[in-house]
Amino acid sequence: MQSQVEVVITGNGVVSPIGIGNEAVWESLMAGKSGIAPLSVFTMPDYPVTFGGELKDFEGKKYVKPRKALKVMCREIQTGFAAAALAMDQAGLEPGSIDPERLGVVYGSEMMYSDFEDLRAAYDQCIEEGWYQHDRWGPSAMSETNPLWMLKYLPNMPACHVGIYYDGRGHNNTICLEEASAINAISEALAHLRRGTMDCMIAGATGSRLNLNVLLYRSDTLLSHRNEEPEKASRPFEKDRDGSVSSEAAAALVLETREKAEARGANILGKVLGASSTFGRVTAEAPVSPTAVSSCIAATLRDAGITKDDLACIVSHGSGNIADDPLEAEGIKAALPGVPVAALKSYYGNSGSASGALDAAVAVLALQHGKVPATLNYDTPDPACDIPVIHGQPLDIEKPAILILSHTRKGQCAAMVVAKA
């Protein structure tokens, strides 16, 4: 049953491969500009995939406060803080603007892999005649490791740093469910506002699938190998797709009760009407559960108090994986037959835990501008993905709400609905 407490969005912060900040991101979307390009920061000799969605010209020192915190922030923590800072700036909020006991933070995150350079000196201590000696790590390498090294890579640190700087002494939590992390984080924030335990929540996520250790750990099996045409590599639901594209990003929303937002004269960007999560059995042959997708969409609509006829579109997960897309499409068609489908990873790839927050942030922009961006690289429809993908030109929004969907290859599925203010 829908809560009587209306939750509104007053800040929207985006750090993405297609731009940093709302204006830059929207310009890229309307220009059909892809953020997928040859890798320049995360390069690795002989790796089969040479491209991805890197952030362009990101400098943590422009956003992180206090500046000294940078020494205990890896790139993902910096981008997560930057997204929150952008969102809070748009919301017109500074540390102390909200009763600290009534300000909370929930972030989506996942495993943060160490940079090679942070461990190089320690690794060198373990080499003898060109071979790594495991028994040397304890007695030798620890002296070469920064005592604060672990603080740079703990998944809960983005939410902690945001809470510390903005003096949020209320609920603070981190959700680690791969691509389902972000929407589950926003859902948790929504629940606290509805229950009246918080007045304001900073909710978002940060993630990267581009760190060299991530690439080595996950391998290139599920990735597109279009090295000669990287901007055409991300092709969700398209017949000639050959895999997903790795990227990095962060996004955050400032959520408040309408009563509190209006009382302080905030500019309201939109509303969060509802959210839910489900789980379904997956196998190696069927890595996405269509039943979990369709039931998650249905539960989210119930929580939001709307029907599919209120939806302008659904922002799909749309990873571009060969096996995944038809299964997701089956679930979407079962729950939302005829509803237009946007596949925004075609612009900025899959950033893992940040992907749902980035999609939600773009959905907020779409509602503000009255248009849903066209899916890139959708040249030949795949008969196995029988859904109406928005392509060719943006879709004019004539209905009040957008549903955002995320899922993992472990069975988790999450969705949320945002609507016009």
Q: Please report which band the strand proportion falls in: under 5%, 5-15%, 15-25%, 25-35%, 35-45% or over 45%.
A: 15-25%
Portion of residues in helices? 25-40%
* Bulk shape: globular
SSE order, one letter for each helix or strand: EEHEEHEHEEHHEHEHEHEHEHEHHEEEE
Question: Helix count?
Answer: 12
Radius of gyration: 21 Å
Largest sheet: 11 strands, mixed
Descriptive key words:
421 residues, alpha+beta, 11-stranded mixed β-sheet, two-stranded antiparallel ribbon
Overall description:
The longest helix is centred in the N-terminal third of the chain and has 17 residues, at 75-91. Strands 1, 2, 5, 8, 9, 10, 11, 12, 13, 16 and 17 form an 11-stranded mixed beta sheet that branches. Strands 3-4 form a two-stranded antiparallel ribbon. It has a two-stranded antiparallel ribbon with strand order 6-7. The mean pLDDT is 96. The chain is α+β, with helices and mostly antiparallel strands and 421 residues long. The two termini are 21 Å apart. It has 12 helices and 17 strands.
